[in-house]
Amino acid sequence: MLNPYFQVNEYHTPANKKRIIWDRLSLGTSFYFNLRFLRFVLSNRKIALKGNYDTARWALSSVEIFNFLEDCGAHFHIEGFEHLDAVKDEPVVFISNHMGTLETMVFPGLIAPVKEVTFVVKDSLTGNPLFGPIMRARNPITVGRNDSRNDLIKVINEGKQKLSEGTSVIIFPQSTRTTAFDPEKFNSLGIKLAQKAKVRVVPMAIKTDFWANGRLVKDLGRAQRNEPVHIKFGAPMEINGTGKAEHQTIVEFIGEHLKQWNSR
Question: pTM for this structure?
Answer without folding.
Answer: 0.93
